[in-house]
Amino acid sequence: MTDPQKTAQNQGLPPERPAHPVTDEEYQKIVALLGREPNTTELAIFSAMWSEHCSYKSSKVHLKRFPTQGEHVLHGPGENAGVVDIGGGWVAAFKIESHNHPSFIEPYQGAATGVGGILRDIFTMGARPVALLNSLRFGPLEVPKNRYLFERVIAGIAGYGNCMGVPTVGGEIYFNEIYSKNPLVNVFCLGIAKKEEIVTAAAGGVGNPVIYVGSKTGRDGIHGATMASAELGQSEEKRHTVQVGDPFTEKLLLEACLEVMQTGCVVGIQDMGAAGLTSSSSEMAHRGGTGIEIDVSKVPSREPGMTPEEFMISESQERMLLVAKKGREAEVEAIFKKWDLDMAVIGKVTEDRLLTIKNRDEIVAQIPVSALTSEAPVYERPMATPKFQELVQSLNIESIQEPKSYSEALRTLLGSPSLASKEWVYRQYDHMVQTNTVVGPGGGDAAVIRIKGTDRALAISVDGNSTYCLLNPYYGGAIAVAEAARNLVCVGAKPIALTDCLNFGNPERPEVMWSFALCVEGMSEACDQFKIPVVSGNVSLYNETRGLGIYPTPVVGVLGLIEGMKTPLTAGFKEPNEVIVLIGETLEELGGSEYLKVLHSQERGYPPILHFEKEKGVQKVVLTAAREGILSSAHDCSEGGLAVALAESCILSPTSMGAMIALDAGTIRPDAYLFGESQSRILVSVPERSLSRLQALIAEAGVGHSVLGTTGGGSLDIRLEGKEQAIHLSVSEMKEAYSRGLAKYFD
């Protein structure tokens, strides 16, 4: 072996490369695990695998709270993606991942390779990707740099997904100054397969060949995992850490991988994602209880003079590592040759439980697999309530002036970029490719994908509210789960499983870990209450630049199942003279609302309270009513409150249907009644003949409701009892504000 270095600081690396970021304590632990000092290649491997991005060393103790078992769960956390049984011999594989830092440094490639990575996580399980969604956060679009980042990220998502032939069917986008230096790009992918086609990522069978397939390896993406585990500094300095994607090669890789899995010769397979060959080899060996020996001189390369270290931590895209049954290498080679992809036998499975890296005949690194995986550091970081917490939770509602014109207040909210139509974005996505999209962007509260040849469909929603999490992390986390589930029942789907992407600041700051722990606690409690297991996920920490961190931003993606699907339920009003009913109760809750943020420039107060029993009751009513076919429309009442929900149901109506509404706010302030964001509320329209059945379901569930008015006409008219007309806007006026709110920045 090469001579070990004496310290972590003196590594003999090229001057343009950063030192491997392990702490002094971690370095001493490495020495203890090896029984000697590591050489430069070994230290590179340790620093990648022990990075926050790969090891989850700061979050692991909290993630144990999540429920991971359930009726539908086949594979939970620990695999490349979660897998659930959806009946009829079919399974769904899904996951959400972040590509935050790369998307700030190089927005097009950062976003594009985020899409590529999550696609590989799905088809490495043997599932064909059928849908993409995304959850995005950016700074205000008035700032040119933010517009540039936003435009290029959208182009990257569209460019990769469209070329792959996978529809982007939904998502969410929010804007806030706090994300100007730390935009968030979270990408969700769903795939389907027959149950017997699922393949896992374990390296089994001593002597079986370890095979490299896909694109050649270059120097792009080196130190990508460690870059994503530190605060951002100068973006130009880190441009070399961003991977470069090629969706056309990935399309070939997808087809080749799915074909080779059909032969039965694949024992295990894993994407070379973060930390590249290092993570794929060590994690596969860990799952299989084996070792792996690799000769880097056999790795296909596209750059001359690459060192063993560079081969091991390169994050070049469109590459997979697989273990095949011994003697069937020729079958693998023939398939990948047909698809014009590289294939090379670069090693073998061993019984010694060591990761052994050779360069021809020389052993350049040898590390126990457990040292890189199960024995990696786990930290219980200090936690402390932020000093500002009491201040941001305080809100003197008497100091908030009511709008002079409620019509103008509603128009302003509809035109704010976070609430406005995202058509400018989703028109760039191909959301109909594969012809499975039943409800796509802008249609309903969740996307719906049919499973051809069956009467089943899958619904997907991603959700998160960072303002709520800032003001009260527990309720913010719980509401993220509740709202995503609520969105699913609004299209008639039963929530069955969840994936999450937890975006936070520097975990070494106690107030960040305080909010992280409480968000996880709230999410876990909600998952327990709603019986929605967490089957996969991702943690993205160090979303800070020069000490300024993001708001706590947990994002959840929930999968729902529709059995016996007929006409899908959507958000827009359908027919005139139908009854509009609000299921749930409205309270005087303005804290954390878009109304406060947009019209009063305040992000403070206490967020709305989530009562689990009420939420379960409301969801049960709507899901049952949807299955019985008595609802014409259903729409979650969330950001912007009741007035925005009513306006959106008019705007999304196929016939631009208006509504005539009469409200009795009682003792609640009119602005709180119209724009407050009380939880556990769903707005529905129903034919008059079905109203009694709906009210019977409501009574049975023991939840509140209000009959608000009827559909019809070409305007939204809202009257408050005892007051003059509160809101009168034509549907065309609302559409104009709604459609231009985001698009106007890109004229």
UniProtKB/TrEMBL annotation:
**Pfam families (alphabetical):** AIRS, AIRS_C, FGAR-AT_linker
Pathway linked to the protein: Purine metabolism; IMP biosynthesis via de novo pathway; 5-amino-1-(5-phospho-D-ribosyl)imidazole from N(2)-formyl-N(1)-(5-phospho-D-ribosyl)glycinamide: step 1/2
Signal peptide per UniProt: none
Class of enzymatic activity (EC top level):
ligase
Region Disordered: start and end of each range? Answer: 1-22, 280-307
Name the InterPro entries for this protein: PRibForGlyAmidine_synth_PurL, PurL_linker, PurM-like_C_dom, PurM-like_C_sf, PurM-like_N, PurM-like_N_sf
The main location is cytoplasm
Q: Which part of the chain is the PurM-like C-terminal domain?
A: 206-354, 576-714
The residues listed in the UniProt record as binding substrate, with positions renumbered to this chain, are 98-101, 120, 243, 315-317, 540
What GO terms are given for molecular function? ATP binding; magnesium ion binding; phosphoribosylformylglycinamidine synthase activity
Q: Which residues form the PurM-like N-terminal domain?
A: 78-193, 443-562
Active-site residues annotated for this sequence: 53, 99 (proton acceptor)
* Entry binding sites for Mg(2+) 2: 121, 271
Record EC number: 6.3.5.3
Record-listed ATP binding positions: 56, 95, 500, 537
Q: Where in the cell is it found?
A: Cytoplasm
The family this protein is said to belong to: Belongs to the FGAMS family.
Q: What does this protein do?
A: Part of the phosphoribosylformylglycinamidine synthase complex involved in the purines biosynthetic pathway. Catalyzes the ATP-dependent conversion of formylglycinamide ribonucleotide (FGAR) and glutamine to yield formylglycinamidine ribonucleotide (FGAM) and glutamate. The FGAM synthase complex is composed of three subunits. PurQ produces an ammonia molecule by converting glutamine to glutamate. PurL transfers the ammonia molecule to FGAR to form FGAM in an ATP-dependent manner.
What is the protein name stated in its UniProt record? Phosphoribosylformylglycinamidine synthase subunit PurL
Q: Gene name on record?
A: purL
